[in-house]
Amino acid sequence: MQSSELPVLKKARPWYKAIYSSVLQQNLRRLDVAFKNFFDGRGYPKFKTRQRFKSFSYPPNQVKLESNKIYLPSIGWMRFFKSRNIPDGFNLKTVTISLKADGWYVSIRIENKDVPQSKPKDLKQVQAVVGCDLGIKKLLALSNGELIENPQFEKRQSRRKAIRQRRASRKKRGSSNQKKAYAKLARIDQKIVNQREDHQWKTAHHLVRLADVIVLEDLNIQGMIRKCRAKQDENGKFLKNGQSAKRALNRLIRDCSWGNLTEKIESVAAKFGSICVDVNPKFTSQKCSHCGHIEKENRNKERFLCLNCGFLADADIQASINIGIKGLKTLGISQSKLLMVNQKVTPKPEMTGSSDREISVSLEIEPGNPQQLNLFEWVNGEAIPC
């Protein structure tokens, strides 16, 4: 009905005639998808003002492509940087033009119906399973002992960003110089997004090449970054609730972008037929994978030391092993297929009747896994690093 009303709308608002008709129809399709998401419980659509409306789409068979030139209806031919060649046999589908801080981008969807759809692997075909623990200092800790560091791209650009924010705020409000200053500031944010997404795609492809099944944590990220509740005394005076200290942690969590990372891992896994499983992370950082003992004191920052059997390991790797074991139980796969660090445990001194001073726990790392070896001694019942 709204598509049929477009000619009437063009007469009422003549500037609509400058917009290609198919682009207007595509926007109505976007609105239809937004309301379908709303009825599925994903939030009411937001009105797009001119400042927030930064992309438009062309339907299939409307756009022409020749080498590094593209033809857009009602706009004409223009050159663009071609990041990759389109494979033979693929047809152009929807073309989306979007405006970002560092310029205009064209995104082309291609399709080849002759290419078979990738199907998830059968559980009998699974050869390797890897558990992944999401973190802040270490973006991912894998059950095979590998640690993927968090580059913290936003923290790297924090000083430059603060300088440009200060410069933009000092410009005359509404002036051309202020617009230029804020444009430079937006380019820093765009650079951070590009760096983060590139690192996430590379990480996702690395995990898919590593194992057939990827087990992830099902984290409540919105709950983790939620503000602390206000505290008041009997007279109604507000007390300190730790929110100022939590701001830095929230900033680091947002810089990790766990939600986008898991979406990319699931997307790449579906592309190559791998299986991606989300499990409840409850007690995974407090449980000993050797004896199954659960205690809060087992973990001390980045160190895991079981108070029951004396098992010593990196806390993040220990959590990733427990996450992998949970995923195996969910799928009903044998634990022998989980990629794990080669570990050996020596009991605590009181269990063996040995002397008061003895190196009682050792951790062997397989060749090729970048993991530091930490040894501890038991002195009067306490673990002391040596």
UniProtKB/TrEMBL annotation:
Every Cas12f1-like TNB domain range: 258-323
Example GO biological process: DNA recombination
Presence of keyword NAD: no
InterPro entries: Cas12f1-like_TNB, RNA-guided_DNA_endo/Transpos, Transposase
Keyword ATP-binding: no
Domain Probable transposase IS891/IS1136/IS1341 positions: 119-226
Entry GO MF terms: DNA binding
Region (Disordered): 153-180
Basic residues bias (residue ranges): 157-174
Lineage: superkingdom: Bacteria
Signal sequence, start to end: none
Keywords: DNA recombination, DNA-binding, Transposition
Similarity section: In the C-terminal section; belongs to the transposase 35 family. In the N-terminal section; belongs to the transposase 2 family.
Protein name as annotated: Transposase, IS605 OrfB
Organism: Crocosphaera watsonii WH 0402
